[in-house]
Structure formats: structure tokens, C-alpha cells
Amino acid sequence: MVRAIVGANWGDEGKGKITDMLGEQSDIIVRFQGGSNAGHTIINDYGKFALHLLPSGVFYQHTTCIIGNGVALNIPYLQKEIDDIVSKGVPKPHILVSDRAQILMPYHIDFDAYEEERLGGKAFGSTKSGIAPFYSDKYAKIGFQVSELFDEDTLVEKVARVAEQKNILLEHMYHKPLIDPKELLETLHEYRDMVAPYVCDTSLYISNALKEGKTVLLEGQLGTLKDPDFGIYPMVTSSSTLAAYGAIGAGIAPYEIKDIITVVKAYSSAVGAGEFVSEIFGEEADELRRRGGDGGEFGATTGRPRRMGWFDAVASRYGVRMQGATEVALTVLDVLGYLDEIPVCVGYEIDGEVTKDFPVTAKLKKAKPVYEVLPGWKEEIRGITKYEDLPENCRKYIEFIEKELGVPVTMVSNGPGRHEIIHRAQA
Ligand code: GDP
User: Fold this and answer.
1) Fewest CB atoms within 10 Å of the CB: 81, 147, 182, 291?
2) Nearest CA to 240 among 304, 143, 322, 327?
């Protein structure tokens, strides 16, 4: 059985915690897209961890963690994350890396920084992890597949060819130091030795495991609104954040994905530039940011303060629809306990007309939020374990969101800890 955990919003919905929780019941956990450009925060018995590339299952000895073919694989970063968790007392995890995954090269990180520098004020707010240059090269067919590290003749030829092309840009467009093909080849030899113990045909491995009745968890990064096709293009990431892509990025049949747990945040937050209709500002935003998440809403990768806003039903309904959500996990609800009243964005006003359907970016730029205000519950809800024990206004807030989403809310997260979750029986 394959389950996916994905985000409905701009990312940072708290997927890490849900993945960690469900990871315990899984045999295999797979990262299928993105790279080290976003982070999951996980709090468990070993401590607090920010994982960027490793799947959240690395804390369990019974799980196999897979870096799928869809991932932007930064090999030294992978090694560093493994060494890091092991140095904090976590037993060495079982990790497999797809032989079809492509390698994030040192120059991808350089090009990311150079391009942001060139764009100046018009920059995309990249995390400078090299993700956009990586996927550009993958689809331009000048990327390096892990398997190619083990084919020396091809590697030597390709390094020379790619360096020549990159050096034209480095010299004439960015005026930066050139790539030395010999040095690059040496780096790739180091990468080969680092990654060699983990490499296999992970698609076949998963296929065999499914035949044996094993449970597989696909772990998504970011959320629907950062998807290159369905997000707020161009302020998106460079690989698909949708559960559908899980089939490709992990190498499994689409019909195997039986359950798509979509994580929805009880308010909104976003990192980086881009459209955000229900955004709030000033003291109102500062207070929500201060109280949000676990110790404030600041980026797990960059430490940047997140932009804050009220729950956006238009964006979230679209977010769960594009994921194909079969169930919703609603997170960080405990954070809202301080509010007398809670605005919820239920429509967008565009050119004098109100819509409930999430539009393309050009229209989104003109959208103004239409709010409905719900009463707050003014109570600490952390520690509550049964749905019925939540304050009435809190249940009303959840049920309002559920109705707007049109998908059952089966889990309510009321604290950052892994056991702080309320399971709700489906009606
Ligand atoms: P992800 O990228 O979707 O995994 O999200 P992050 O892990 O970056 O952000 C979620 C943040 O909220 C982390 O600091 C979590 O520890 C925290 N968190 C997750 N669920 C809850 C919750 O229900 N309540 C509170 N207060 N914090 C939560």
C-alpha cells in the first residue's frame, strides 16, 4: 500500500511531524521531488531535527529511506545529514539512493547565487540551493545521473562537454571564475565514493516490496501553491510538489497511491515572494508569527521570517483538489487560541466580482480577500486528546474548514510534539 503526505498550501504546513508519525507504521519512506531547499522539523526522543534531504523515516530502524529518482541529490549534503543525525545518537539509518536520481552539482549552487545577484531586486527569493539550475539542466539533458558516476569513459567526456558550455555563461554573462574540468571530475569521483554504498534500482526495490505487502510512504516537500504547473508561477519551485508526481519521482504505478494525506495549516504562512491574498501585516502579523509553529514562524532552511496570513479557503480547497486529497491533517490549530475572532478568507474579489475558485497568477495579483469572521475559543488546546473535548468554537472552526475543503479532516494537530495529534473518526 502506498500513502502520500503532501502540502496544500505554500509549504511549512507541518508535514514533517505527520510523516514522522506515520513513518513509524511504514516499511519504506520515499522522497520523490525537490532537494535540500526546504526543511522538515521533527521533534522526537532523540531531540529536535531540521531535515532537508533525508526522508523523515531515518529515525526508525525498521524503515528503509529512499531518495527517489525525482530528487535533486546533493551528495555531500546527504552525507552531512547522515553524519549529523548519527553524531546525535540516532542509529545509522537504512538509506537507498536511486541510480536514476540526478546529481546536484557544485556549479548549480553557484549559478543559483549568480542569477539571483544578476536579477537584483527582481530575484525569485531562491534558497540558493541550486534547485532551479539543477532541474533546468535535467530537462535540457545535460544533467548527471547517479548511474553515470560508475561509467568513467562517459563521465570524462561529459564533464568536458558540460564545463565548456557552462564556462561560456560564467565568462560572458556572470563574469565569475570558470569550471576546471579536471577538478570537477575529481569532485565527481569523491561523490561516487560517498554515494556508492546506497545506490540501487529503487523503483524495482519498491515494486518488489509492494508485492510482499509492504507499506510505502511518499514524502512531499513544499505544497500545491509552489508547484510549477499549478502554483503561483513563476514564484514556484522547480519540481512538482503534487502527489501525482510521487508516482514518477519514486518510480511506481500511479494506481498504487491509495491514500493522499494532505496537510493544511489552520492559518497561512509563506516564505519568499509571490501572491498571497490573505496576507496580514504589522502588529497583527508579528503576533501570529511570534506565536506560530514551534517557537515562531521562521524558515527551517533560511531562518527568514515567514509571511503570515489568515486561513485561505479558496487557496486551500484548490490545494487539496490538486493533490487529490483523500484526507486532511489540519495543523497548528493550538496557535490560534489567543484570538477573540478569527477571520477566514472565503472568496477573492477580482475586478468587482467574487470568486471561490483559485485563479491564474495574473488574476491573483488583483484579488482582494473576502473574509468571514468566526468566533475564537480563547483556550489552550494543547494536551487535549479527544475531538469531543475541544472547545465548541474550536470544533466549529475545524468543521467550517472541512466544509470549505470538501475533504474529511481526519487529524487535528494541536502541538509540535509527535503525540500531539487528535484522530477523528470519519463520519
Ligand atoms: P513542513 O515543511 O511542512 O514539515 O513544516 P515545518 O516543519 O517547516 O514547519 C512546521 C513547524 O510547525 C515546525 O516548527 C513544527 O514543529 C511546528 N508544528 C507542526 N505541527 C504543529 C502544531 O500542531 N502546533 C504547533 N504549535 N506547531 C506545530
Assistant:
1) 182
2) 322
